[in-house]
Amino acid sequence: MFNTLSNKFEKIISSIKGKALISDDDLKTTLREIRIALLEADVALNVVKDLIENLNKKIIGQEVLKKIKPDQMIIKLVNDEITRILGSENQELNFDKNNITKIIFCGLQGSGKTTTVAKLANFISKKSKKKILISSTDIYRPAAQEQLKILCNKINIDFLEANLDLSINELSNKIMTYCKKNMYDVLLVDTAGRQVIDSKMMIELKEIKSIIMPQESILIADSLSGQDAANIAKKFNDEIGITSNILTRIDGDSRGGAALSIKSITGSPIKFIGLGEKIDDFEAFHPERIASRILGMGDIVSLVEKASENINKNEAEKLVNKISKGSFDLEDFSKQLKQMSKIGGVSSMLSLLPGISKIQKQAAENNISDEIVQKQLAIISSMTKKERRDPEIIKASRKIRISNGSGTKVQDVNKLLKQFFTSVKMMKKMKSMGNQGNPKDLMNQLKNLPPNFN
After folding, report:
1. Residue 329, pLDDT score
2. Nearest 5 degrees, angle CA 109-CA 111-CA 115?
3. Could you give the 3-state DSSP secondary structure of residue 135?
4. What per-residue confidence (pLDDT) applies to 446?
5. pTM for this model (two decimals)
6. Domain segments of the chain: what residues?
7. Do 101-295 and 301-447 fold alike per CATH?
8. Is 3-86 CATH 1.20.120.140?
9. Where are the beta strands (DSSP E) in 243-343?
């Protein structure tokens, strides 16, 4: 996510880090490089201009050049400005506490709109006990209806199939009648997309909106379309009034132009982002966390949240006890690899750590990837229970059998065992450190760390 932009910002920041004094020329060069980096990332020109002007005013206003560590202040101001143009803070959905919360979705074809409807329903369902209904007013594409029906079955959400012979008005009224009659808490309505924005589309959306009367009118935008996504969002906003945005395929967006432009251009916040094809590849949008990622400072808060959502507390406590007793084996190692996959895999975890470009480079050099993790799980699965519990017995003949059974090479088995024994040694060192090795104490220490501006 935003790798290109992040790499450029890391270079800009490294060029001013550690300087006791920053001259006017240094400042001009830094601002010019930031401007070029943002424009190359396909951020809208007026957004870039606004950001640079604000940075210049704040830097001069705070007399950064006279500070003892002016580089840290500049980095903080850049972080603050990026956070501001992204939307300052996370904004939740507008739920109606007393009546049905109605949400309509709009966007162009190919933006991932239909899948995103199901993703948001799944997100709401996991966070609350609300009774949810999904329906669609897309009378032009039966395949879209079928896709939504399949997704609803997968996530156990009710789906009201549309009668394609009805008009848009009749269908919208039918959806509302059914929703009220069956006492749903939340209604999510997908709408038809087009290859391009046209007057017929906007007329239909206005009709749907007048009947449904939604609390949220959400635009689904493909982040890979860059600045075009922001321009499309503006057109939808001008025509029907957009309350919020969801950016899809943000995991493949190396530039970040859409994310950095859409809030400033439309005035409506980004509330969620789609991070992949799976139904769970979806999360709330936190501007301050995204800004931190862009500047290479990681996002430890999101990493901890993902871990807390996916890691079984009882299993974690058993693991701590095993580590403290020195009885950690390959069964436990396998469980940890599976837990990492649940969090999103190696690539997802690395993207949230500080110094992302350096970490990812090291991971590539050491051949660390999701594919390697799956290979390691296959190797462990090919072992007997006795071998998993006592890896010391795994010698030449056993290694050959395990490699054949897992479809890997003996060298792969050796690498896994070396990694495991190294992990065991580290755990023993943690144990010898007493409380300093306690995972709970370590987490408390992480929470108390200041923002990484050094």
Report:
1. 85
2. 100
3. strand
4. 39
5. 0.68
6. 3-86, 101-295, 301-447
7. no
8. yes
9. 244-248, 270-274, 282-284
Cβ atoms within 10 Å, residue 155 = 17
Per CATH, the homologous superfamily of domain 301-447 is: Signal recognition particle, SRP54 subunit, M-domain (1.10.260.30)
Summarised one tens digit per residue, pLDDT across range 234-256 is 889 999 999 999 999 887 766 77
Looking at per-residue confidence, does 393 or 11 come out higher? 393
Q: Which of 23-32, 257-266, 309-318 has the lowest mean pLDDT?
A: 309-318
At residue 440, φ and ψ (nearest 5 deg) are -65, -45
Helices 287-294 and 3-16: angle between axes, nearest 10 degrees: 70
Residue 108 corresponds to which tokens in the numbers above?
Answer: 């162009």
Instruction: Name the H helices within 62-155.
Output: 70-86, 113-127, 142-155
Task: With CA atoms as reference, report the closest residue to 145 among 163, 127, 172, 120.
Answer: 163
Sign of the CA dihedral with 114 first, then 120, 126, and 128 last: negative
Phi and psi angles of residue 219, each rounded to the nearest 5 degrees, phi first: -95, 130
Task: Tell me: pLDDT of 181 over 90.
Answer: yes
Which residues, 6+ apart, have CB-to-CB distance to 390 below 8 Å? 329
CATH topology of domain 101-295: Rossmann fold (3.40.50)
Whether residue 271 is predicted with pLDDT greater than 70 in this model: the reply is yes
Location of structure tokens 């190696």 = 346
